[in-house]
Specification:
3 domains
């Protein structure tokens, strides 16, 4: 799964970023999710994505509270606002996959859907339903004329970019998405890896692995662990940390400044080295 983003993936990322609209004043379809807490959940997730620049959200809802309808209403909002083009719905049992697909088809009839547990050859629908194991089997196997259909990328998993990766990015952008002049007019001299990392962020597991030496260190106190966790959260959401002045603001300063928290500056030096490494892997340094 650790590969450079495909041409298709990059086009989608740039197009979505350019065309999506604000989620500030969304309308939640009450025919889909009409309960007050369902509407509140959808609006809360949208606020996290838009205003708070979060990349992930978790909803914990009781049995019978209408989880599937809430998710369908959220998907409709995100589709209408141009924030997403594709949806992946995973469950641990075939019966749940079938039930979820039926609900999506009934409530969003214009959305193309497929159940990979049943439709073995239909991989191009915008809403894909599958069990975890079926999807795992599809990731490295399913391809079309342009490559793998289900892909991840080096940048999101903190793999260092090679010169070949940079050349591939340049080829895709300069010949398929726009010209180099268009890019420089919009983004100046920002490195390509930095821009893509800003869009896709960094995987939480990759970020925690990078800082594992400090997160697993039983010698660090609670304030130091809190500080490292805040750095992890920031990098997951923003992809990197090139402006260290953010460390002088909340939430990083909630329990003291860097100098207050790390009286042993060798610990802070190690943390800084990890940050520099993450930036370097995105082609920022």
């Amino acid at each position: 799964m650790a590969e450079i983003y495909s041409k298709r993936d990059l086009k989608k990322l740039f197009n979505l970023q350019a065309m999506r609209t604000s989620l500030k004043n969304i309308y939640v379809d009450k025919d889909i999710a009409g309960r007050y807490y369902q509407e509140g959940a959808v609006k809360s997730v949208c606020d996290s994505f838009d205003r708070k620049n979060r990349r992930k959200a978790l909803l914990v809802m009781a049995t019978g509270s209408g989880k599937t309808r809430t998710v369908i209403a959220l998907c409709k909002v995100l589709l209408d606002a141009g924030w997403i083009k594709n949806i992946l719905f995973l469950a641990d049992r075939n019966s749940l996959v079938t039930q979820a697909k039926r609900s999506f088809v009934n409530l969003l009839p214009d959305l193309s859907c497929t159940n990979l547990c049943e439709d073995k050859d239909n991989y191009t629908a915008h809403c894909v339903f599958s069990t975890y194991q079926t999807m795992m089997n599809c990731i490295d196997v399913i391809k079309d004329d342009t490559g793998k259909l289900f892909t991840s990328g080096h940048l999101r998993t903190n793999q260092p970019l090679t010169r070949l990766d940079i050349e591939s990015l340049e080829k895709i952008l300069w010949s398929e998405v726009g010209s180099q002049e268009d890019y420089e007019r919009e983004y100046g001299h920002k490195p390509l890896g930095e821009l893509v990392r800003e869009i896709v962020g960094l995987d939480m597991n990759a970020a925690k692995e990078a800082f594992a030496e400090f997160l697993d260190d039983t010698n660090l106190d609670s304030r130091q662990i809190y500080f490292v966790n805040q750095i992890v959260e920031y990098i997951v959401h923003n992809g990197m940390m090139t402006d260290l002045s953010v460390l002088q603001k909340s939430p990083f300063t909630d329990q003291g400044s860097v100098a207050d928290i790390f009286t042993d500056l060798s610990i802070w030096a190690g943390i800084r080295k990890v940050i520099d490494g993450i930036n370097y892997n995105a082609g920022v340094m």
